[in-house]
Amino acid sequence: MFANPQVETMERGQLLMLQGQKLQEAVRWAAEKAVFYHASLSRHGISYTDIKTADDVRKLPFLTRAELYATPMLDFSTMPLSSMLRLSALPGDMGLLTRLYTNGDIAHDIELVTRCLVAAGLHRASVAGWLGNGSDSRLLDLQYGLEFVGATVVAMGDCSAAWQPLLACSHLDTLVGTPTRIEELSDVLAARGESLSSYPLATLILLHDSPASIRKPLPKAWECCQIYHLLALPECGTPGIFLPCEEGKLAFHVAEDLYLVEVVTADGAEAKAGEAGELVLTSLEAQAMPLLRLRTGMTVRKLGTCACGRTGLRLELADGDAVM
Asked: What angle do CA 180, 186, 192 make, to 5 degrees?
């Protein structure tokens, strides 16, 4: 199923042309509006007029995660706080990362999350619960995405005492949360002599906020459900960039209409076909806090075309950690 078939099945040549157009505008916006990028691009002698195709992204300097965490939030911001709709401090492995969002950013994020949820089989008859605290912007995106799909949504919160009663009365078929949260729920159920299989749950959607999280083995007790993985990296600010079209697999389509992806080796060169490398992300329509060539630290490998019919670039997580 497709949430946006026109975009998800766009012909590759058309998609690459669209990326080139959006990339030039994204670089212009970042250079003119954000203190960090104005200084960085000026230092490297780069103008947005140098960017004409998607391949020209390689002319831009890399942005490291260390720079992203260490630089004051407002140096990445393209607008005053009064123009923002949302601010969220997201915990990452290098500390708290504060992300800003405009109305347009949130609309894009909800669109992306909706694509992921539809790919995981959710629809208007689904009853989906999510575990966690709404102060996390990524979970708010999920709430709105689930509602956009038309599912009945149960916001289960972060109070473990409320989880089993909500699970018992709502007849959930889908549960969304980090592996840690779902493990906590499993412990709550185990104390009652129950497990996830005691309920009519059919699907688990696991949110991973780091590559280390996604590589951890899953409990056998969860095998009663279909499992889909979402990469909710704090640097991206949303869990919807990587679309899981295959149940149980660490393979994802990328939303290339909104993000440009590179896979690079340790020296920054483009990885060859089938070669593992570091995932580098460039946002194409981010308004509040653009990302230009962010080195994510994730090791991935490009895959071939997919039977699902989506034309967006397909990646799989590879073993090992990329050079930061």
From this structure: 150
C-alpha 139: how far from chain center? 11
Q: How many residues does the chain have?
A: 324
Residue 49 CB coordination number (10 Å): 9
Say which amino acid occupies 246.
Answer: E
The stretches of the chain forming alpha helices (DSSP H) are: 5-8, 12-33, 35-43, 65-70, 73-76, 103-119, 137-149, 163-170, 179-190, 211-214
Secondary structure (3-state) at 99: strand
Q: Say how far apart CA 9 and CA 32 lie, in whole Å.
A: 33
CB 85 within 8 A of CB 106: yes
Residue 167 in tokens: 């699970």
pLDDT of residue 322: 39
pTM exceeds 0.85 for this model: yes
| pLDDT number for residue 321 | 46
In whole angstroms, what is the distance from residue 292 CA to residue 281 CA?
A: 7
> In this structure, what DSSP letter does residue 316 have?
E
Residue type, 14: Q
Which of the 8 DSSP states describes residue 162?
Answer: G
What pairs with residue 208 in β-bridges?
231
Class of domain 5-251+273-317: alpha beta
CB 106 within 8 Å of CB 86: yes
Q: Confirm if 123 and 149 have CB atoms less than 8 A apart.
A: yes
Q: What is the pLDDT of residue 320?
A: 55
Rounded distance between C-alpha atoms, residue 234 and residue 291, angstroms: 12
Residues 88 and 101: beta-carbon distance below 8 Å: yes
| pLDDT block averages, 10 residues each, the chain of length 324 | 94 96 98 97 96 96 96 96 95 90 97 97 97 93 97 96 95 96 96 96 93 83 94 93 89 95 92 92 97 95 91 86 37
| Residues 149, 126: Cα–Cα separation, whole Å | 9
Give the residue from 247, 258, 127, 129 showing the smallest Cα distance to 181: 129
